[in-house]
Every structure is written in structure tokens, then in C-alpha cells.
Design brief:
The structure is a single chain. This protein starts with a helix and ends in a 12-residue tail after the last strand. The chain is α+β, with helices and mostly antiparallel strands. The chain has 3 helices and 10 strands; from the N terminus they run H-E-E-H-E-E-E-E-H-E-E-E-E. The protein has helices at residues 2-22, 37-46, 96-110, and strands at residues 27-28, 31-32, 50-54, 57-64, 69-78, 81-89, 114-121, 127-137, 140-149, 159-166.
Length: 178
């Protein structure tokens, strides 16, 4: 009887450990972290989204019938599993009011963020400056990021994007995917 109980305990703990390791850290915009790329792309197509697979990134164009507008989702994969999803906001004309309203909503919902500042060099000698407002701790973080070129560049406009990350999906997150 004692042996049987120990076996059931081991089986139960193993099942629980497998379940916990497969739980996604985020579930947002209809996607769950940890889902494999083929399943993500298949589901998006089934829901009527336009899907474009690129190296390491899947771009999804989603039409919102209610507002009559399109939104873009950028999904990144590591070891063929979804670990990061981003949504550029106000692509055509980000404004301070849009940014502040979005930031206010996040602060009201999630509390005070950690603020990070970065300058990412571009091949032309310019750089992209970013201010990131981050909620949560690794492996599960949500960010609101405002970026702009350090010096005006043709065809590069300032932007706002939301990002959700689950770094448990990668053994080691490559620097270019952070």
C-alpha cells in the first residue's frame, strides 16, 4: 500500500511538473507563449488573419471589423516556440497624447513600471533611442516602448509598441531577439 501511494505521488508530481513547464507566461491577442510556430500560424489563418513568415518572426495582419482598421502583430520564436509578441501602435502618427493615454492605462492596471533607456546603433551611424516602461519580472514581462531616431532619418518615424515576453521558452535568448 505504501509503495502504491509513493508511485502515485511520483506520477502526480511528474504530471504537475510537465503541466507547469508547458504553461504559457502570457496569453494575449489570442496567442499563448510556448505554442509552436506551425500551430500559431495555422490558428491565425483559420481566424482570417494574413500571415507572413520571415526568418525568426511571423507578421500577422489582423482586421478589426468593429473599428474597420488593421493591426499588426509581430511574433518571435525561439526553439520554434512563441516567446515574444509585439504590437506596434499608432503607426502612422504616434502622438504624445496617445502614448500618455496608453501609459496611464497600464499604470492604472499594473502599477508603477520599471523604466529603461536604450540607444540602439543603426548601420548608417544613426541610432534608435528607446524608453521602455516594463511591468513584471523575467521570465514574464510586459512593456510599452516609445522609440525615435536620434537624428531624423528618411522613412523612419517614431513609434510606440507593446511587447509581451516569456523567456522560459528559450534555453538562452539570443541578443538580437531580446
Amino acid at each position: 500500500m505504501r509503495h502504491q501511494r509513493a508511485v502515485w505521488m511520483v506520477v502526480t508530481l511528474t504530471i504537475f511538473a510537465v503541466w507547469v513547464s508547458n504553461c504559457g507566461a502570457f496569453e494575449v491577442w489570442g496567442f499563448t507563449s510556448g505554442t509552436n510556430r506551425a500551430a500559431v500560424e495555422s490558428q491565425a489563418r483559420l481566424e482570417g488573419d494574413q500571415v507572413k513568415a520571415l526568418a525568426g518572426v511571423t507578421a500577422i495582419n489582423r482586421f478589426d471589423k468593429g473599428s474597420g482598421t488593421w493591426s499588426v502583430l509581430l511574433l518571435q520564436f525561439c526553439d520554434d516556440r512563441l516567446f515574444k509578441i509585439g504590437k506596434p501602435r499608432n503607426i502612422n502618427s504616434p502622438s504624445a497624447a496617445d502614448f500618455l493615454n496608453t501609459l496611464y492605462g497600464y499604470i492604472e492596471e499594473r502599477g508603477s513600471p520599471t523604466v529603461l533607456v536604450a540607444r540602439n546603433p543603426l548601420p548608417n551611424g544613426n541610432s534608435i533611442e528607446e524608453i521602455e516602461y516594463r511591468w513584471g519580472d523575467p521570465p514574464d514581462t510586459t512593456s510599452l516602448i516609445f522609440n525615435t531616431p536620434a537624428h531624423p532619418v528618411e522613412n523612419v518615424i517614431p513609434g510606440i509598441r507593446e511587447e509581451h515576453r516569456d523567456t522560459t521558452q528559450c534555453a538562452k535568448v539570443p541578443d538580437h531577439l531580446r
